[in-house]
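Slide 14.
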Amino acid sequence: MTENMPEHVTQEFLDIIKLPSPDGKRLNYLIVMPRMAERDDISYPFPYGLCIVSSALKASGRNVFTLNLNYKQNHLEHLRNFIIDNSIDVVLSGGLSGQYAILKEIFDTAKSVDTDIVTICGGGIITADPLVAMQAFETADYGVIGEGEITVNELAYAIETNADSARICGVATKSGVLPTRGEIANLDCLPFPNYDGFEFELLVRDGLYSSDRFATIAANVAISRSCPYNCTFCFHSSGKKYRRRSLDNVFEELDWLIAKYKLTHFTFADELFIGNAEFITGFCERIKPYNLTWGAQTRVDTVSVEILSRLKDAGCSMILFGVESADNSILKSMRKNITVEQIDAAFDAAKQVGLWARGNIIFGDLEETRETIVHSLNWWKAHQNWTIYLLWIYTFPGSHLYKTAIKRGIISDPVKYLKDNRMQINVSKIPDKEYWDMVVNVELFQWLYGAGIDVDIEALDFSVVAKKLTDLCVSGKVAVWPIILTVAEMLNRISPEFVAHPNTFLVNVNPHEVHSKGVFEITGKPTLLPQVIEDNQIETVLYAFPQFKSTVLSEITMMIDDLYPSVKRIVTIKDLLD
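Slide 15: predicted structure.
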């Protein structure tokens, strides 16, 4: 059964898209949201763009089905049956480069049902490097480059009427790419995202686990598209020109969402949220009476105490600053057009008005050296009252870093690079071995600081930890509990021998989780239920969870006391450094 027409369908939009021809074939379209939540009790980022493209195709009057593979058991079998039961002719999906595997399984499944089914992929994964993505997918017939709302309707028209798809701007095939379509000038003309069709109500239900403190009863709303800046690590999938919706249009969507889903918290996506005084004044005046909490992101060179006070007064509870480095030479290399002094001023202003601010440092820029990393870490240590996470740059297709890595031969096979999905590579000035050693040391450094232990990054030597880990598993059985992706990555880098040893068992963070695909890909080992501790009479539990201040350690300790008497000791990373 297809769904009702989407919300906010304008005549202006209908005038710029290809509506079905009376003489064309009447086809059944299926838009599939990939499975992003590995478990049924965790949230996932709702793909706003895919939902608008879905509405754009439905607005044309075409026969459109939608399917969200999240929270579905045997999701690919579910997809297969859905295609058969509804006689689907065209399957569409889309996402970002890091989602290659979960998108490919959608197109492979569609083609396994019937090779005549037309498959179409869109999103950043196609826009970043269209020919590479099309070659990597193998079973995708078409790619939609850039904003998809107009192109997808023109492509549908061509399929329905057997017209020449080679004339459609913004379409890619395995053999070529046509000129990109121009950006949509008036974002207000677009229909609202298809929340209903993708079961948004399941994502805002109570009890979902997420590291996002505002995850429950929340939604993201995109206020603008693209960004005028050209940071080297970033890629703009929706064109080069920055455009913003009108306040009337944004608040019409807000009213609709609140009435439908009783939402109490929003996150507004706009690279330049505080870039225009008239906009921010109007926004704050209009949102304040709603008595909502909300968050946004912005540049540090646009804020002041006065502006942040206005935001907080209007319900803003979190502001995300683009930090990326605490070294001015790296900020310049990244083309951030900001300084460390501006970062300091922005966080100081947020603290002054009592607004929670956070940001990320991402190591690994082209000009990064050991010295610049140490410089940023020392700055980070000096600002422990601020919420700033330490991460590493991922070289995403389409970015300046990606193009540089290809030019330098660091990425020799872009198709394989996309398929392998290992996008943390060394493009910095640091020699390879030293780079990967620094990755481990920074992870340990952050972990220890989180545990309240002051360490000198220059003196940190993870080889000591590696030896202690080996001693642990050689002397008896060890359960790493809880195992999560970052812990698996860290331990595997410190000591692959420890992870691979038959005495080492990886125990789930969630006792109801059966298997973590990500951990398995890194370690080659399954994640296990805590019952494995009793079954194997394990005496040692290694606690390497990075959020030391969370309640996880106390919860695990209580479970061990109550259920697993074989455990004689709990060892932390700190213990391994002593």
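Speaker note: Residues 49 and 193 are 8 Å apart (CA to CA).
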